[in-house]
């Protein structure tokens, strides 16, 4: 049985190397590659692969957003995240998005191949190093606090954040204040930086 794969990675050299190495495997068929999140989603919808192997951070939408969209639409493709970021927040978001595999880019290619085969067989596979990090660092913020902080990190003033999220401006201030307190920082800029560093945004 051949496992069809769509591969998404925004760095051209890495994408080419991954594609070439996966194509050496007799049971893997790389049917398409993509260099950003929107193209990855389009490639999955066009080619209907068994597995999507994707980076987390890409132009457009992230690999986690792609995984969430596929899950929301009930697509059958199993998603494997391959990333340089050993961030516990990313792993937790990946699990919430229905991701089936999560491995680091510095893992041997044989490990990635094994993960693709295992998730295709119905398993969920997480790098042990990442699993330990997830246990050690829980995201203290609520979904709403995260939404507000994400927009604040993009430089939006409270009034515009309130309009986008259909909230009162005072409520936005409260969410920001609570997030800042929970993260133990001095202001929204430091809160956003810390949350991004830990993969919570």
Automatic annotation (TrEMBL):
Keyword DNA-binding: yes
Sites of 4-aspartylphosphate modification: 55
Domain HTH luxR-type: 134-199
Any Pfam family matching the protein: GerE
Residue ranges of every copy of the Response regulatory domain listed in the record: 4-120
Keyword Phosphoprotein belongs to the record: yes
Alphabetical UniProt keywords: DNA-binding, Phosphoprotein
Listed PANTHER family: TRANSCRIPTIONAL REGULATORY PROTEIN DESR (PTHR43214:SF42), TWO-COMPONENT RESPONSE REGULATOR (PTHR43214)
Record protein name field: Response regulator transcription factor
Organism: Pseudonocardia humida
Record lineage: Bacteria, Bacillati, Actinomycetota, Actinomycetes, Pseudonocardiales
């Amino acid at each position: 049985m051949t496992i069809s794969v769509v591969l998404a990675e925004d760095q051209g050299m890495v994408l080419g190397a991954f594609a070439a190495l996966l194509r050496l495997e007799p049971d893997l068929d790389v049917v398409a590659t993509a260099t950003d999140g929107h193209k990855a989603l389009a490639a999955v919808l066009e080619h209907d692969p068994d597995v999507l192997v994707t980076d987390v951070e890409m132009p457009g939408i992230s690999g986690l957003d792609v995984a969430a969209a596929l899950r929301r639409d009930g697509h059958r493709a199993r998603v494997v995240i391959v990333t340089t970021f050993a961030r516990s927040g990313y792993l937790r978001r990946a699990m919430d998005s229905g991701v089936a595999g999560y491995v680091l880019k510095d893992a041997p290619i044989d490990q990635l191949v094994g993960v693709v085969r295992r998730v295709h067989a119905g398993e969920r596979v997480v790098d042990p190093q990442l699993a330990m990090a997830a246990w050690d660092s829980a995201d203290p913020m609520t979904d709403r606090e995260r939404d507000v902080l994400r927009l604040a990190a993009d430089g939006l003033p409270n009034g515009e954040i309130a309009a986008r999220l259909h909230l009162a401006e005072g409520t936005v201030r409260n969410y920001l204040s609570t997030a800042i307190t929970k993260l133990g920082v001095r202001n929204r800029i430091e809160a956003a930086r810390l949350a991004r560093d830990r993969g919570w945004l």
